[in-house]
Amino acid sequence: MASSSPPESRRSPSFPEAARFWLKLGFLNFGGPAGQIALMHREVVEKRRWVDEPHFLDALNFCMLLPGPEAQQLATYLGWLLHRVRGGLVAGVLFVLPAAILLWGLSWTYMEYGQVAWLAAVFRGLQACVLAMIAAALLRLGRRVLHSAFHWVMAVWAFVAIEFLAAPFPLLIASVALVSWLAGRWRPAGFSLHQAATMDGMAQLVGAPMRGRSLKTGLICLTVWWLPLLLVGTALGWQSVWWQQGWFFSQAALVTFGGAYAVLPYVAQQAVTHFGWLTLPQMMSGLALAETTPGPLIIVLEFVGFVGAWQHPGSLAPLAAATLGAVVTVWATFAPSFLFIFLGAPYVERLRRQALLQAALSGVTAAVVGVILHLGVWFGLHTWWPPAGGLDLYAVGITAAAFVALQWGKWDLGWVVALGAVAGLGGHWLGGW
Fold this sequence. Notes:
By secondary structure, the chain is mainly alpha-helical.
């Protein structure tokens, strides 16, 4: 990242000016976490000069320690730096809201018209592209985090544990974190750990953390997070699909280390196999749709909530049930991020200086590589070998072309998704699909 301007050139925006920017960002934040973080750096640090480089990097490093969507958490943190709680709320909500509304519309279109033959072929093409996206993500993450024999062992163990032992994802993450923490104590040199430099400006900005304020903040955030979900359970029943979704996605939000691809196997396993909310092809279609929207990729969970409630509406109309399911899922997925930021931001420097915490999280990130590999194998089996026949060579060809476009052609993700849609439509016209 480019160097920021001198501290004296920084300026503080008004709250309405910042709110307009966060709304604009919500419509433009394509490109996954890396692209979204780069966009915020360019706009907030380099162009507008609202935050200087040290503060931005402090915020980024802190958000990388947290479960959940780091880009949305970074936006929340930057909003908090500028205008405290109201700034964080506006930044975090507007980062997600445009994508949530757009995906709601796409989800309705999928459920209402997805059985039309030509549209179903389009979604099959998108599913084949999803495999290429997973493969590209696997290679990109693997090159970045598998930098020692220990990390390779953690990745292989994660794949074996999920693929062959059906290990629960939360238990896997907890065990890897513990083993990595112990390994960091035993051989810290193997992790290239270092003490993070202290930023005096940040310490002055946030002030000394106070236990009373932290307790109050935690209680308020927990109440805001859980009260709507408890009201849903009270009004609609503790066995209703909406309470199950609220409870499940609240748990999933606490183990979402390594991005959306890391938690998707766990979500797919539970949503498809355990709860029966949707089928695996529907899950893959939702992932493809989420790739076409701005915002964090974890917004795909909204599709899971929408489809699951549409197909299990209880006494409600399908669209009303699905809309409530989408709202509950988005709430349970993103509300914890505000708790993490508002509660943890004052302690950012203390957390960054914990070398053993860095060791534990580096092991978890390595394990995510194995988890993503499991996701690719699972999706690949269902995409390339459909129940109706043998190996689908046309789907294999779409995946290969999409992977080449992503990995070596450096195509934008939106164009790759468009390629999959056109190829799927072509398969329908040629008669194969």
